[in-house]
Amino acid sequence: MLNEKEKNLRAFGKMIMKLAQGRDLSRSESRECYCQVILNKQPELQQGAFLMSHLTKGPTTEELCGAWDALYEFDTEKIKPDFAEDCCDIVGTGSDALKTVNVSTPAAFIAAACGIRVAKKGARLVTGVSGATDILEIMGLQLDTPLSRANQCLEEHGICYLPGESFLKSGWARLIQSMRFTSIFNIIGPLTRPCAKTTSIVIGAYAESLCPQLVEVLKNTGTKAVISPYGMSEKHEKHLGIDEISVCGPTAIVELRQGKIESYILSPADFGVKQCNYEEVASRESAQGNVRAVLKVLSGRDEGPLADLFAVNAAAALRVSGREDDPKKGTALALEAIASGRALEKLRRLIEYQGGEKGLDKFEKLLKQLC
Predict the structure, then answer these.
(1) Which of 11, 32, 121, 299 reaches 20 to 30 Å from 318, CA-CA?
(2) Hey, where are the domains in the chain?
(3) Distance between CA atoms of 344 and 371, rounded to whole angstroms?
């Protein structure tokens, strides 16, 4: 007679085979399977086989919702700031073909400087040179700072950073430390809601076909407004894109607005900026190089294509949060927030609250090195 452990192993194995045969899971089946992965109830071999089988088959919206349910219920620590306004988030899935300097992180500070509250989440790199956590650590962020400090910064300064390594503790953080391949966690990780006040999000996708799914999942799990961009480069094939709004070609966008989902294409001109070459915004060779590039823009030392790239993505946050609908006006507000120094000040306040005793000193030294 089989014991409970063997029964569980075999039942999970059947789900792997079901996916390998191209058959879909129900939302509840997906939730249960991802619960077992998140809580480490299966051997690593079975976990890896499940994740790759699911990605290879291609996840349905129901399956992604089930995975989201498991991550949110079993692995997501939440902050609950005390204010009346709603919050916005800006994040990408990563795993895009064309790597740029980090975009959603500086865009978050710029958007916050324009008057919206931004509860920005992120993580370390998976396939690129640097993730949000990597560059913010170089700037002075202390990863082990309690989330209560992020909550306080959000309440007092309208900005905070929520590292996946901190709010996703039992499962996702364990997996992300060892995985160097794309999985469903690349999709649902950015969809998590660690801030109870977050009602809108800009969520960049690594593939154009993923945008509608991301929006559907967020709609079905309670998010009110979503913009999901897939940016392209005029000089690259369409399938080689970035998980941000692009300034080097068109951007395909899927948007959830007032309960309705629509798709459209925007060009850099729609934001009032010039189109540039991909090489001008491409990732530097190191995380330190990306940090320098970000700080040069936020400190007003670089008003070129990177500033435009950050600004158009901040403009998307202004639209999705209800601050400014028009892309050109939103971009103009974003560029003014950079020029005035307000965006850099938002970053400075975040490091002050979430950088421990020495964070702010480290940050100021980095700024001086740019001179």
Answers:
(1) 299
(2) 4-75, 87-354
(3) 15
